Predict the structure.
Amino acid sequence: MTTHPLNLTLAQSFSKNRIVLLLCASFFLGACDQGARPTQPSSSQGSPVKTVDLILTNGKVLTVDNKFSIHSTVIVDAGLIVETGTAALLENYQSDNTINLDGKTLMPGFIDSHTHIRGRPQRYIELSEVTSIAEIQDLIRAKVKEIGEGEWITGYGWSEDELNEGRRPLKSDLDLAAPLNPVTFTRAGGHSAVVNTLALQLAQISLETEQPEGGIIERGEDGELNGIIRERQEIVGKLVPDSTYEEIISSLEINLNALLKKGITSITDASKKPDEYLMFEELYDNPELPLPRAAIQFQWSDPAAINNLKDRVGGGTDMLKIGPIKVFADGGFTGPAAYTLEPYVDQGEYRGYLNMPESELVALLNEIHDAGWQMGIHAIGDAAIVLVVNTLADTLERNPRVDHRHYLNHFSMRPPELTMELMAEHAIHITQQPNFTYTLEGRYVENLDGWRLQHNNPIRSPMDHGITVAISSDILPIGPLVGLYAAVTRKGMTGAVYGPDEAITMTEAIRGYTLLGAYLNFEEDSKGSLEPGKFADMIVLSDDLLTIDPEQIMDVSIEQTFVHGKLVYTNE
Ligand SMILES: [Zn+2]
């Protein structure tokens, strides 16, 4: 018999039922319907009681169906939802694994429709959640202990906007923690890095070194190198030894598994090479590993390899499949490199740039569409969004395809109304990151102003135009609760509110992070809501997202995560 941490009162066996019957004085008054059904129940229609794998009851079950129905009981069998409804369902079903939700909220697992999950070498330090330079130094010291003196240490994801010191980490900060290990840490966004003295020495970079083309080796106010290298950090990074397949795959497994803790039961990984699919395949070949479902997006750099892979894996499996093709139209707001209609604040006529010449981008979008693939297109600046939408509209008029589901991977600036009308007309969708409004607040305030600052990462306006807007994280950070918080409050990290007219309701945000994410992968019939026949991918939350004070949303914890009806994470 399976025992379960949440199974506090429900009877799971004959003897337990008897005890509950004895303890529940109000049973005969009908008030004890959860715990004390008869040991040989029969349904009201007289049909036999069906035994199923899992029953969850006495909860607030957000089904995320069309009507956003809220039920109390979910019946699961063979990994699928059989039925949801009231506790009356307990008359028709029984299970050795019955969970009393104790009033807690159960909902479909989050579907993060735009993220990046990687395996990392052992020398790597994740810096995207650090909040101080002191913390970075502690992480370095721990890593030196782990891998030994002399080894390269790498990392990614720091941002001065999130550090208590309010400045960038510099060479001198890294030297204090790692005098004997070369260190290179790439900033969030990937456009610069900070390296330490030993790394500069090994790369033979000194004050005499010429500035690399397209990049800058920075000097501090004292005229000395401060360790920051902009745009061309590979002049140091190329010295880092290759990592082994074994260390990368075991780290990938850990990083995928960690998503279950965040309540994420499906992801679309937004930029891999076809050969990286093999590593995912190796993990997903083992059905015992607790992992979220994954769809992998490839860039179109090697169409033959993508097509070969597609020939081999076809539609993939329920757990792992090939997603849409990824195209990069422009950059982001670190740099900044997003391609905008109007110049950035205080940067002359600078408007960012496209990732490739316009004619090449137009040809690429047409080529991928004509090859029959769906596309997820990175477009951040309003000029990039306008160009991509105009191009797709032309492409779709020239070569119409019903239900293409092309979408924009971002929508960081609100484009002109006409662009949103075109998107609605041609069913061009969005996966939006409301969490950017929160985490990238500093970037937006520095580079944008007025109306375009207020309407960063809009959701309400595209939705009102009839555009499908799914919600995702792009790992900034990965936790869906940050996205839900920012989607309903429109608040940045400082607490300032940006464009409250772009806020959506929690119900809409939940739908965006579940069912609409499934829709972008043509999976709305199997995922994203708790309806009969769909995968039992579900999470139990510590609090009720529909009634909680919005300021507390980010404190909600994920108590349990189920994938295919199987408990894959519990916080106990
Ligand atoms: Zn991304």
In short: The chain has three domains: 14-103, 124-237, 245-570.
